[in-house]
Amino acid sequence: MPNHKSAIKRVRQNEKRRLRNRHIMSTTRTYIKAVRAAIDGGNAEAAREALPKAVNALNASVTKGVIHRNQAARKISRLTKAVNAL
After folding, report:
1. Element (H, E) at 41
2. Domain boundaries, the chain
3. In 3D, which of 34, 23, 79 has the Cα closest to residue 55?
4. DSSP output for 53-83
5. What pTM was estimated for this model as a whole?
6. Which positions ≥6 away from 73 have C-beta within 8 Å?
7. Mean of the pLDDT values across residues 4-19?
8. What 3-state DSSP class applies to 47?
9. What angle do CA 57, 35, 71 make, to 5 degrees?
């Protein structure tokens, strides 16, 4: 347990950020899974509908500082490429 006032505050901040990051990543993964499921099922229309939601979620996670912008760009690129290949 932290003893200093600043360390106690830091623990509170870290916990709040951890929960926020976990929620953002969980939501993002859900949208990505929806796109991948549509791609695996060969459903081009569903994949095209799910892709913008996944892209928005990835961009939001970058804005919040949860993932690096290059990681988001890579994932968006690969998902878009896979949807366009259908």
Report:
1. none
2. 5-85
3. 79
4. HHHHHHHHHHHTTSS-HHHHHHHHHHHHHHH
5. 0.86
6. none
7. 96
8. helix
9. 50
pLDDT bin (cut points 50, 70, 90) of residue 16 is: very high
Class for the domain spanning 5-85: mainly alpha
Q: What is the mean pLDDT of residues 1-22?
A: 95
Rounded to 10°, the helix 5-40/44-63 angle is: 160
pLDDT at position 45 is 94
Contact indicator for 50, 41 with CB cutoff of 8 Å: no
Chain segment 38-79, per-residue pLDDT in tens: 999 999 999 999 999 999 999 999 999 999 999 999 999 999
Q: Is the pLDDT of residue 1 over 90?
A: no
Which residue pairs, CB below 8 angstroms and at least 24 apart, start in 65-71?
A: 66/21, 66/24, 66/25, 66/28, 67/25
